[in-house]
């Protein structure tokens, strides 16, 4: 595996293996913020306006597949501690980070540069990544890094809070879709993977990408985007930037929620661009079904007039298909479409 970007000394020019073909490059660095991506105040749901909050969440998930939440109840202190420990992680000496690196596909807790397909990919991504499962905490926490010394404690508290937040949001979504209470409180949310992206300043941001266009394979993603811009969402064929809001989380619908909602909610394609001034660190919690969990359109949402548009599958089969193909959203979802006729 090549050296982490964060362990190399200077990035004065962009080497050719980071330059994307013209049709995939970000090009324009001044993409406007999508002011119509909803910012939802979650405290309103508790203060008597639950129905209104639910409507806003469902509308945003139908139109954009993305929204942001503020006043979500996770304390600033817990967030700041996690943010600072994520930064510390990538600022550790190269030897310390090297201990966490692996290109073994079966290793669940690992650091790498670009993507897990480094050896075979045509163009590399301008990012380093560290990922590991975090739910249930007791099963995974002892496998997390010993350095930074505060990592296990800070990330442990943060991930427990984020899991609770995901449950609250999913309960609003299930109510909005007309599903029974607790619909997602089982194997559909049995796995949580934390992936931390570290994007150093890039010498040619218009030619490189932090993450290429994709939809998330899981159920729902809770993303701490940091104060530096970089996340863009594809809406009606145009890229729009997601504005960083201090202490907000960006929430996006994954493929599984699109399937369960029988196509009502959309897993929008998105990407991460880089910039030439600031390091950006984002942390995404991928809330996902367990491997053996069977995913299919919810029965309550289908009848003879609204037949299921997806077939039932095991999550692990979806996942292996997704990573083998790494195709655009339309192609991935077509493979899981219900048979016609
Ligand atoms: C992801 C992702 C966006 C970001 O990790 O799947 O889309 O802003 N990240 O880092
Ligand atoms: Ni993503």
Automatic annotation (TrEMBL):
Belongs to the iron/ascorbate-dependent oxidoreductase family. Keywords: Dioxygenase, Iron, Metal-binding, Oxidoreductase, Vitamin C. One of its GO terms (biological process) is defense response to oomycetes. Pfam families: 2OG-FeII_Oxy (PF03171), DIOX_N (PF14226). This is Fe2OG dioxygenase domain-containing protein. It comes from the Eukaryota. The keyword Iron applies. GO terms for molecular function: dioxygenase activity; L-ascorbic acid binding; metal ion binding. The lineage of its organism: Eukaryota, Viridiplantae, Streptophyta, Embryophyta, Tracheophyta. SUPFAM superfamilies: Clavaminate synthase-like. It catalyses: salicylate + NADH + O2 + H(+) = 2,3-dihydroxybenzoate + NAD(+) + H2O. Residues 189-289 form the Fe2OG dioxygenase domain. Its cofactor is L-ascorbate.
